[in-house]
Amino acid sequence: MLFEDSKLYGTCDLTLGGKAIKDTACALDLASASMMVQAGEPQTSLGLRQELVSAFRVEDIRLQTPYGTAICQRAEEPLLSAQESGGNWIGKTVLTRLFEEENKHFPYIRVLFNAPLDFTWKNQIDEVIVTPGLDTASRVQVSNIGQVIGRKKTLSVIDSKVDDDELGVAISLAVGAPVRFLAKTREGNLKLYLNTPRPELQPRPLFRCADKEGWWKTDLVIKGLSNVLVSTISYFAKIPSEEKNLTMDAIMVFLEGRANSGAFELKLLALVRFLEWFDGAKTFSKNALVERLNISQGEAEAIVCLRNQVIHNRMDLRPCLDKTAEELNKANPERFDACRGMHPHLKVLNYLFSVCGEALLRKIGFEGDVDDYFPKRGD
Predict the structure, then answer these.
(1) Residue 328: what pLDDT?
(2) Of all helices (H) and strands (E), which one includes residue 270?
(3) Which of 267, 271, 253 minimizes the C-alpha distance to 169?
(4) pLDDT of residue 98
(5) How far apart are CA 325 and CA 158, in angstroms?
(6) Measured in whole angstroms, how far is the alpha carbon of residue 297 from the centre of its chain?
(7) Which residues, including other chains, have CB under 8 Å from residue 244's CB and lie 6 or more apart?
(8) In the chain, what are the domain boundaries?
(9) In what helix (H) or strand (E) does residue 352 lie, and over which residues does it extend?
(10) Measured distance CA(120)–CA(124) in Å, rounded
(11) What is the pTM of this model?
(12) Distances (CA, A) of 47 to 13, 44, 54, 73, 275
């Protein structure tokens, strides 16, 4: 996190049910992405929820941080998610137990935010922080990107001049999962994204991070991470704007399908969407797949057949996947067998993500070693 304490305390102006409350206590919880706001005097009732939403505003948020007061003039699109008439006092701290003579119970509301919060503050650092992270164990200077600091849960890039959208896609491809921005700070401004964290997503690098014995190697992580970041940004700089937008979309769709724990059918649709982009033609071509995925004619035919069944035919996918597994194993048994998964359907899915991921890395100009998760190349 940006701050050691996941909660930032301060005050704000609250308008609730048409009633204005100035300089009321608030506490922004970065971990739960919500803010508690004191909504009245002790022991008072807030009223019905629908009455409170009328003219609901949160303004002049002033939060204390280790780097000075952060000030947000107005929260855009706040959402009243909960209310409590007589809950625990949100101004409670470790020392209030020693110095407060009475147990105060203030009514409060809990607020969520559907838009980023924009603050001004004195800190002049230039940093973006995303999740999930990838532990680099040190600060890494990446050419033309900035200083990268990878951790287990988050990753920061300091002093980057790269477009934020391009940087987000590049980091996602390097981490192996679609990252979400937590915060950005530049030239005395702080932007907090409080509705985007997805703790279920875990880093799954496409490049090799372990030695032949399976031991995790930080030097391989740093080398692979740097290589993917530089290659991705360099590739974006070489292609036209419209093509770049399509490429960024295809990469994120691929990573969503690969990293998500969603339904099998949704993962297949993500793969088809990616392959449609990778094929580059209006009609799905097995010859293009042979060349661009570096696979055999038999493998390409199996993929085209599966794609047609997913998109065009209204039928049970299970027998189709059985047939695809059979055809892939027949066309290249060594490659198919190298894919992880006990069930043939899972092996098909892993095979598709593997060949597509390796081809994607090569397309952007990555020169390092791919992960053992990928299938073996034929001679």
Answers:
(1) 93
(2) helix 264-279
(3) 253
(4) 63
(5) 45
(6) 36
(7) 166, 236
(8) 7-115, 124-250, 262-379
(9) helix 344-364
(10) 10
(11) 0.87
(12) 19, 9, 12, 27, 54
- Under-50 pLDDT residues of the chain: 1-4, 376-379
The pLDDT value recorded for residue 376 is 47
Side chain identity at residue 2, one-letter code: L
Is residue 197 classed as helix, strand or coil in its secondary structure?
Answer: coil
Instruction: Tell me the residue type at 357.
Output: G
Can you read off the two tokens belonging to residue 153?
A: 């849960």
CA-to-CA distance for 71 and 64, rounded, in angstroms? 9
- What is the structure's pLDDT at 181? 93
Of 48, 32, 31, 36, nearest to 9 by C-alpha is: 36
CA angle, residues 289, 295, 297, in degrees to nearest 5 = 75
Residue 34 CA to chain centroid, in angstroms?
18
The H or E element spanning position 127 is strand 127-131
b/e code 66-91 from CB counts within 10 Å (16+ = b): eeeebebeebeebebeebbeebebbe
pLDDT at position 378 is 40
Which residues are 65's β-sheet partners? 68
Tokens of 163: 């477009």
